[in-house]
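Review form for a predicted model. The reviewer records the input and the model, then writes brief findings.
Reviewer: anonymous (R2)
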Amino acid sequence: MKMRAAGRLVARGRRPAGPGVEGVKSADRAMAVLELFREWRRPGTAREIAAALSMPRSSTTVLLRSLIQGGYLRFDDSS
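Model under review:
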């Protein structure tokens, strides 16, 4: 895919899940976390995120750390 410097990317929404639709599990989970924050429009705890996405808490914690290190999320310890 060739991208121009002045071009913009536009989100298209989630792709349909189901038979024959394969994805990278960690990428799918990362997108699900970001979409959850878009829906919530508020901070959330690792426990809330894991429950909302039916993910193991340990996997959720590792994924959240990765998203924080990548600059996609930030940890807010003010609450």
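Findings: Residues 17 and 34 are 17 Å apart (CA to CA).
Further findings: DSSP finds three helices and no strands in the chain.
Recommendation: see findings above.
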